[in-house]
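Researcher: Predict the fold of G13106 protein.
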Amino acid sequence: MVSSCDQGKLLHRSINACLCPLYAAEGMHVVTVEGIGTVRDGMHPVQERLAMAHGSQCGFCTPGFVMSMYSLLRSKPEAPTETEIEEALAGNLCRCTGYRPILDAFRVFAKGDSAAYTEEAIAASKGLQPGQIGHANGNGVHANGTNGCNGHTGSNGDGHNGSNGHAKSNGAEKPTNGKNGKTNGQKICPSSGLPCDCGAAADVAPGGMIETDSGDKLKFGGAAKPSKPMREPIFPSELRTRVAQPLELPGKQATWYRPVSLESLLDIKAKHNAAKLVVGNTEVGIELKFKHAGYPVLVGTTHVQEMNTIEVSKTSLEVGGSVTLTAMMEAMHSLVKALPEHQTCAFRAILEQLKYFAGVQIRNAASVAGNICTGSPISDLNPIYMACGAVFTTVGKGTPERQVKAEDFFLGYRKVALESHEVLLRVSIPFNAKNEYVREFKQAHRRDDDIAIVNAGMRVQMSRAMSGEWIAEDVKIAYGGVAPKTIMAPKVQAAIKGQPWTGETLKKALEAVAQDVNITANAPGGMVEYRRSLAASFLFRFFVDVALKLEKEGSGYKAADWLPAGHESAAVHFERPASQGIQYFNKVTGEALYTDDVPLPPNTLHAALVKSIRPHAKINSVDYSAALQMEGVVGYFDHSTVPGHNDIGPVIHDEEIFASEKVTCIGHAIGVIVADTEAAAQAAARAVEVTYTDITPVLSIEQAIEAGSYFENAGHSIVCGDVDAAWKDCAHVIEGRVRVGGQEHFYLEPQGTVILPGENDEFIVISSTQGPAHNQMHVAHALGIPAHKVVGKTKRLGGGFGGKETRAVNVSCAAAVPAYHLRRPVRLILDRDEDMHTSGHRHAYIGKYKVGCDASGKLIALEVDLYSNGGNSLDLTAAVMDRALMHIDCVYKCPNTKVVGHCCRTNHASNTAFRGFGGPQGMMVAEVIMDHLGRTVGKGAAEIRSLNMYKEGETTHFGQKLDGCQAQTCWDRAVESAGGLEARQTAVKEFNERSRFRKRGLAMTPTKFGISFTTKFLNQAGALVHIYTDGTVLVTHGGVEMGQGLHTKMAQIAAQSLGLPLSAVYIAETATDKVPNASSTAASASSDIYGGAVGDACRQLNERLAPYKQSMKGASFEEIVRTAHMDRIDLSAHGWYITPDITGFGGEMPFNYFCYGSALSEVELDTLTGDFHLLRTDLCMDVGQSLNPAIDIGQVEGGFVQGMGWTCLEELVWGDEDHKWLPPGVLHTRGPGTYKIPTANDIPLDLRVTLLRDAPCKRTPQAHSSKAVGEPPFFLGASVFFALKVFFLYLFASNILSLPIICCLLLREDVKDAVYNAREAAGLGTGFVSLDAPATPERLRMACADHLTAPFAKADVHIRGSC
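Model: Structure tokens for G13106 protein follow.
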């Protein structure tokens, strides 16, 4: 947060620290997360709330969320609304939690009416008596009553609650009172994972602050009581009176100027025509960092008073060029409230567009002029400025002010009508007249914080003719994202201007869109058909919107004269309410250390990789001489300098640390530069010149199949029954293909390592890895030294998800080579784009299937060929394929099955493990097959699935008997949570009958996920437990904490085993000199195996202490331990665990057990754009006897949201045969600007999670009968994909004048018949429709083929993704 004083008023703003130049912060008060609270000195209420609500998992994103919330509270004179809180957090990303606990944590700070939450009101809302609201709902997870910050529910249904905090009333803080409660004998609070010491209830004063974190779960009180007195950073009094001075600060790369007057600014600009003007640095900073632009003169215009004014004239709003977007928004909000509605139509359009323009942190820094002058063809505001008639005023030294119309300002790609000596002084946005309408439009890959695919601004001035008709007197239509610059649409304007507002005028205008919006086939950005269709859809929406407004205003205009009933939905703008859900500490202070936070010795060198820029080529030469001459550069190292072995790989050594003769993907490491600073190393790496002879690359699965490019002996098969003989018994035989794209891990902490050399060739390898032992062995191999001289250490990860299981090795080995030769520490941290291009992704898959069933839909035979994109090395591709083969059944029994795996070798960076490890890809094929079967035999989705669902005791296609099968139970519980399937289907059907262009879909997806490494020897674990003479315990185990709560669960097991409070147990960092030869933390098995190892060590210690406990009854644990120590009893134990009975892949018991779950999701799709909202998800997950329900629910929600991202949002776009506008082999989506993970506004509006109760796992007594929870929930996110997909199964063409329903949802047999008849009559048939995953807006919109897409694409167009 940066704070400043402007004319006596304090302004507090959250900003992105990585974009804020240090010089720009001069004269400001800067507050970071460490400044508002620490564990030692006491946490701020914002930090405390987030910790207690389990809003931090890996913790890497947590400081950002804390500071966004803190800044919001400091910037507002009164409590924010829940919507304002969600908007303030929209610019923050989290990959672990699914956002729900973060939002719940911060809602305590929102406005609320406490009168609505009296005991009587809560009880009445639930149909209960007031005395019943304190009881849990029976599953021991969440209570149907109030639940305070430190409150929790009992595991046997006697939940109790307490706030242990503060309630705010009239600005005063009053401590609340709680009653002590018990947990029916539980030692560990199932909600917080802490010893049970909380109160039971709290009162709230009338008008007091409340927290409503869902419709069913309420928390009373304000901020949680800090453990120590809170400290609030106070704005320094010296800065209140300080007068800003002009600055001129020369540097090695640039000189920074900060003028304080317009005259000084113009002098500088006249002297330095090429100077870059900077306010928020949100554009220039990106160019400097990622495009390596060199700007020798930077001018900060933040203190030029003439450019920081906001004035209101009689005709317009005048906004200075340096005014931030946030300040402009605030001014417009005030005008919207104060002026007649018709006058501020343009302001409302701008405000609506700014809501999705970027995160609050960007709007707080970015300026009005900066956004305009970048000249971006996809600027969200420029089309509106052009449409509404805005005027830009420019000025330069020696030339007068000049007014330029916005529509004339943009000359070409990032070229504007600004002379080299001029600056954009101010923007004039006119007020609107009566019957003048302005609308904004934008479609992006993701709704929030994303750049547009296409945007538009549209304005029309309507007038009534003598005939009584409403005529378009003036019209302006502007589009962005369809040309190298923002354009006007003159032919569309001509088709509308002077014409009546009728369907015939609209038809002519839509025909003109194809002339104005003409995009070449291989234009940058691709998606040509979609972008042109969006332009038409926006115009259609605008036409309907104006018609409805005219009608509403009582003008005598009747939209129904041309607009059929139900088609009003074209103009509906979805207003997303604050989300809610049912669900239930600590990296919130910023003190948690990650690899890049490790304090470095003073002689540390920084490394940067020299990487290939070709996907497949022979290396002819490498010239690094220029790099070595650069300041600060110490050396260059490559394959010739590796002291040991250059070959690496987790299964077979088919990779090289540094490419020796040829490169096989873009990003392939050729060498490494080390220098005194990271910037110097990166600049030198770019200076290394490599020449190549290109070799034809293989860039997709299809190309690999055509070229026969496979990994030898990597693809296995599974056969059960007699598939060939079974076909004759099938009443129906169908065939199809499934394409599923890859997925970027997007862990927020990138790959990184620090190599610390010691004496006698000893090395400490501190790295962000899921497998410290894996790193240890490979570094020793690379350096040619024994493993006992290398110690691998990992404190924690900022996310992993499988991406750091094996790929961290490449980074560690590359850094170890210069560390070995120079005997100096070396740090190598990849940038985000480097990481995404080089470290691999989830494997893309293609599944070709043939399936047969009887007349009822019962499966008889299944034959599947699975093809995966393995990349340029084997890595774990074979094991990933094995799991995919074993999950091809999902939860369905097929007596005759043959599934064959084909592992394709391509010229992408090697793909690797990702949450689910191939299981989701296999289950995706299974679910598509079930949909295809249902359409073929005429059965609904639920019916066909229930018919084929596994039953207890049945055997899978790979021979494992199902013991404790919960598939049907989880399905039934999810339906029960949803309020019944039939009722929900009826409601969706009724909505769709009323709405033409907004459609709802409902789908249910089950899962069955096997737990264990499928390679048998990996299923082993060790732990080391020390008891100290003060009665405290130190636990070290081989697992890595990366946000999944592993350390917390191990501490709970140790505490419960030894009979101690959780506070007496501490978990040390993972280190190979404490626990050797540990398997990577993966396969969701870590809680099971390390829990067993910790339990084994504690068992040994309990046996040693048993005689003392027997003879010293009533003594404290510390006294017992001291006595044993005096008797020379060993108080340290090494525990060991191996998973019993399992066989690995190919045997009859490859898995220890299975986890089951089901999710029912409802979506609402805008068929005109492909945008959708996830309305509600009801999810039931089988986690056995949960060790910690709060952690488990967090894993379930995070996994679900990540799975939804994989199937619906996150698309990897490569330069391949389907994306010829990209260079071959280049990954386009290699950063948050182009690759879109879900944000807080993409999660379900209503998310209800149930952990299956009364289902202890018989296979895990060592882990208290719990089950794994990391990977199993992931696939349930696919329920959103199938809820969306259901729309496209029944599409038919339409005519503009008749406008029949294009998309229908099959819910009942009568509807199904009508839709199939309509498709058949339209000539599109009634067959099954395939949709590639992810279901991006482009695919969704183009699948909804209609009169708007017809001019640009065929109705059956198939938008393929990179595979």
